[in-house]
Write a structure and sequence with these properties.
The complex is a heterodimer of chains A (about 110) and B (about 110). Chain A has about 110 residues and is mostly beta strands. Chain A is built from no helices and 11 strands. In chain B, the strands form 2 sheets. In chain B, strands 2, 4, 5, 9, 10 and 11 form a 6-stranded mixed β-sheet that branches. In chain B, strand 6 and strand 7 form a beta hairpin. The chains are: A mainly beta (about 110), B mainly beta (about 110).
Chain lengths: ~110, ~110
């Protein structure tokens, strides 16, 4: 069964450093998303991406965040200057159409120290 | 504001003891309601989509139902491997295509 692949599975970074989280969505999917889940809290929407541009972003997705689809397969989330409160699981998801269930990756656990 | 509230927060069942999880939602026009299963340290796994009141979907021991204000996930004769967090989520007809998640119900099934 097709999978969404995320790397790395765990990243530890110093506060103020830049991190790039990587995702390979399912190849025939058209819509791509980043969500995050702080330990013990809800899964929160960050950003959606369609047709090579951001279609929607949340209040969390401020200027320190950016997304790219540098080639036909990868989808990245960059955090420019990490803060302690950025520590969370970050999930990538993709879907064929807008009202279908997502396929999520296994996540990247980001720990900012 | 679109909201999803799940109850109970946690549910402990004996193997074979059927029960239901509740998801109440307020949304400005429902495009779809989704149920996911999440195991510890993993991403959510899609289970069902429901689009309109009265709709029902089934998969093995799970059955999801939908009314205009809430959805239920019924678990029939659960097994220990059904232990997980079950997440309810909605997409609204307006305001883009993001999915809003509830906090989940943690289900523990004891053998």
């Amino acid at each position: 069964e097709p999978e969404v692949t995320q790397t790395p599975s765990h990243q530890v970074t110093q506060m103020g450093q830049e991190v790039i989280l990587r995702c390979v969505p399912i190849s025939n999917h058209l819509y791509f998303y980043w969500y995050r889940q702080i330990l013990g809290q809800k899964v929160e929407f960050l950003v959606s991406f369609y047709n090579n541009e951001i279609s929607e972003k949340s209040e969390i997705f401020d200027d320190q965040f950016s997304v790219e689809r540098p080639d036909g397969s990868n989808f990245t989330l960059k955090i420019r200057s990490t803060k302690l409160e950025d520590s969370a699981m970050y999930f990538c998801a993709s879907v064929t159409g807008t009202n279908y269930g997502y396929t999520f990756g296994s996540g990247t656990r980001l720990t900012v120290v | 504001e679109d909201q999803v509230t799940q109850s109970p927060e946690a549910l402990r069942l004996q193997e074979g003891e059927s029960s239901s999880l509740n998801c109440s939602y307020t949304v400005s026009g429902l495009r779809g309601l989704f149920w996911y299963r999440q195991d510890p340290g993993k991403g959510p796994e899609f289970l069902f989509t429901l689009y309109s009141a009265g709709e029902e979907k089934e998969k093995e021991r799970l059955k999801a139902t939908l009314t205009k204000k809430e959805s239920f996930l019924h678990i029939t004769a659960p097994k220990p491997e059904d232990s997980a967090t079950y997440l309810c989520a909605v997409q609204a007809e307006v305001g883009g295509f993001k999915t809003i998640f509830g906090a989940g119900t943690r289900l523990f099934v004891k053998a």
